Amino acid sequence: MKTLIVINDAPYGTERAYNALRLAGAVAQQQGQQVRVFLVGDASACAQTGQHVPNGYYNMETMLTNVVRRGGEIGACGTCMDARGITEDRLVQGTRRSSLDEWAQWTIDADKVVTSRAVVIDRNGSGGAETLLGMAFDPYPAPSAPITLYLAY
């Protein structure tokens, strides 16, 4: 099963990025699972190396490293990195600059897509959720393949 997790939120301030990376690490350690994480917008700052946080506080650099160590792939939106002054040499090891084209391809390839806005699209699901998908992603038409929507973090 291929899962794409898209993170839109800043690394600190809310727990969305934290919970998304917890989920990515948990899924990546399961046999037969492929996990990809795409960092977009403020989430591109999650991939910046050299983060120093208070003792006992989660560290995005450590969490991303754990996902990579478990076989996950991490892509950071290049345009978003540029807008925030993040250069490739400042990325966490195993994380790489990515693009809209790659994000689109990862979305097409995924069996499940999880976003930090609480929607998972399961293309191999039982169907019946086309109307919900149409409302969530309006004005795009619902896909012809059956889908299931799940709430996530």
Structure description:
The chain is of the alpha/beta class and 153 residues long. It contains five helices and seven strands. It has a seven-stranded mixed β-sheet with strand order 4-3-2-1-5-6-7, with helices on both faces. Strand 1, helix 1 and strand 2 form a beta-alpha-beta unit. The longest helix is centred in the first third of the chain and has 13 residues, at 16-28. The model is unreliable at 127-144 (pLDDT under 50).
Describe, in short, the structure shown.
The protein contains five helices and seven strands. It has 153 residues and is α/β, with parallel strands linked by helices. Helix 2 links the parallel strand 2 (34-39) and strand 3.
Residue runs with pLDDT of under 50 for 5 or more positions: 127-144
Helix content: 25-40%
Count of helical stretches: 5
Largest sheet: 7 strands, mixed
**DSSP strand tally:** 7
Mean pLDDT: 81
Question: Could you state the order of secondary-structure elements as H and E?
Answer: EHEHEHEHEEHE
Which sequence of strands runs across the widest sheet? 4-3-2-1-5-6-7
Could you give the distance between the termini?
19 Å
- Computed CA radius of gyration, to the nearest angstrom: 15 Å
Choose one word for the global shape: globular
Strand content: 15-25%
- The chain-level structural class is alpha/beta
